[in-house]
Design a protein that fits this description.
The chain has helices at 9-17, 23-41, 49-62, 104-111, 154-161, 178-183, 218-229, 252-257, 282-297, 313-326, 340-351, 354-375, 401-411, 416-421, 450-464, and strands spanning 44-47, 73-77, 115-120, 140-141, 144-148, 167-172, 187-190, 210-215, 263-266, 301-304, 380-384, 425-432, 438-445. The relative contact order is 0.14. Strand 2, helix 4 and strand 3 form a beta-alpha-beta unit. Helices cover 38% and strands 14% of the residues. The protein is of the alpha+beta class. The two termini are 16 Å apart. An 8-stranded mixed beta sheet has the order 6-8-7-12-13-11-9-10.
């Protein structure tokens, strides 16, 4: 007999819709999985079994089954406030913080009929690209627990990869959905800026941080994205005048059909190349080549895009990253509770003059225009997802902020510029290392190009035939 966690999220959704299984049954099953597995993985910052069961009963009795995520279990990233639930933001400085109100993204998944099982682990304030903070145990990669799960949505990715959740929402300000998804062998989508009403990025500095799905396959990611975009049903309700181009979806059909022939570009240079020594590991090259071969066999046009130097990018992006950290609501004696990297970023950000921030924002706006123009001849652009294989737990320097930042750049040089440009991007696992750890590629779309990305990702997923592989703890 198939256990509930073995179903894809879409299959589980269909079981719930047919009333073959109830939200309470599904919730209990996943809570049992978390209780048995999470001590070894560290995917959750907080588990709320009583509240989850109560919520599942409420959904079962009072929420219409037409709600797009009816009865589906997930977890809130620990950066997103849920009223009455500890929200520690991955920081010892917020150990006792229990919010009175929920964030908009949390309200959106509730409106969509989902059942939250708790809070997925995140590094301090979501700043690093790995999830190994001092506020809790490191989040480990289910494929090899000696390795990290990536970040900052590392807990969400580890939970989904190990079958403790069918899918999970994450947030991505520089790669924080795509990096852990790639490290854990999952599909992770960063939507276009302005696409998800509850996490559009429009209120964040530089428009970087957006909400999106992490899932085990392409269709599951589309199912969750549709629920995030239109939790009360289509048409989606946007709260800003600016929004992503094109249709808001639904995207599930494009992800299931996987139709179309497209013109693809391939990029292996990065905007960090002039400031850091960027090396693409053989395993990352192999994954890229496998994807290119698959797309060529499927009849897509594939060509390399010539490198373009952007020597101003590292300084401008660092300014935005540090200035964003300057707004952390910690002062005085509480600063001693911050981790060294966070304190370095925060203090550097608070020391920057307003003119430098204004110049960085202006430079990055021009960079966005140049990236869109450079990629305009192509329906999508293919890059490695990560430049290196997932690093071991403890690999990142915990004391030297400069060295730590450089380490993060060397592992993840292909992600942050997509946030700056406001473009959609999806990671898809296509290969694995000699030790069995998944390796993936990133597909970057045109502004508002989510439907094309889902179609391409579905084709690639079918072609490489990695569908039913699971980590050892499954």
């Amino acid at each position: 007999m198939t256990e509930l966690h073995e179903y894809t999220a879409l299959e589980l959704h269909q079981l719930l819709q047919r009333r073959d299984v109830s939200p309470v049954e599904v919730t209990r099953h996943y809570l049992d999985r978390i209780e048995r597995l999470d001590d070894a993985i560290g995917a959750f910052a907080t588990v709320t079994p009583e509240a989850a069961i109560e919520r599942a009963r409420f959904v079962e009795e009072h929420v219409p089954t037409a709600a797009p995520l009816w009865g589906m279990p997930l977890a809130d990233k620990d950066l997103h406030r849920r009223a009455g639930v500890p929200t520690r933001l991955g920081s010892r400085a917020f150990t006792d913080f229990v919010p009175d109100e929920s964030d908009e993204l949390v309200r959106a998944v509730d409106d969509a009929g989902a059942v939250s099982l708790g809070k997925s682990a995140t590094p301090e304030f979501g700043l690093p690209s790995y999830t190994e903070g001092l506020a809790g145990p490191p989040t480990r990669n289910p494929w090899d627990p000696s390795l990290g799960a990536g970040g900052s949505s590392g807990g969400a990715a580890a939970a989904v990869a190990s079958g403790m959740l069918p899918f999970a929402p994450g947030s991505d300000g520089g790669g924080s959905i795509r990096i852990p998804a790639a490290a854990c062998g999952l599909v992770g989508l960063k939507p276009s800026r302005g696409r998800v009403p509850a996490g559009p990025g429009l209120a964040s500095l530089g428009g970087l941080g957006v909400a999106g799905p992490i899932a085990r396959n392409v269709a599951d990611a589309a199912l969750l994205l549709d629920g995030l975009i239109a939790p009360s049903g289509y048409p989606a309700v946007h709260r800003f005048a600016v929004r992503a181009p094109g249709d808001d979806g639904p995207y599930l059909g494009a992800a299931i059909r996987g139709e179309g022939r497209f013109q693809l570009g391939v990029v292996t240079d990065t905007p960090w190349d002039d400031a850091y020594e960027i090396t693409i590991a053989p395993e990352a090259h192999a994954a890229l080549e496998r994807a290119i071969t698959a797309f060529d066999a499927l009849g897509h046009g594939v060509e390399a895009i010539a490198p373009v130097a952007e020597p101003g990018y590292p300084a401008a992006f660092r300014t935005i990253w540090q200035t964003g950290a300057a707004t952390i609501d910690v002062d005085g004696e509480a600063e001693a509770l911050l981790e060294p990297l966070t304190r370095w970023l925060m203090l550097r950000g608070r020391s920057l003059p307003a003119r430098q921030l204004a110049e960085a924002l202006a430079w990055l706006a021009g960079f966005e225009e140049r990236v869109i123009r450079r990629f305009a001849p192509f329906d999508a652009v293919v890059t490695p997802a990560l430049a290196l294989t997932p690093p071991p737990v403890g690999w990142y320097d915990q004391e030297d902020g400069e060295r730590n930042f450089a380490q993060q750049v060397r592992v993840t040089p292909f992600t942050s510029f997509v946030n700056v440009a406001g473009l959609p991007a999806i990671t898809v696992p296509v290969d694995e290392t000699a030790g069995g750890v998944p390796m993936g590629v990133q597909l970057i779309g045109r502004p508002g190009g989510e439907a094309t990305l889902f179609a391409l990702a579905a084709q690639l997923e079918r072609r490489v035939r990695r569908g039913h592989r699971h980590p050892p703890n499954w």
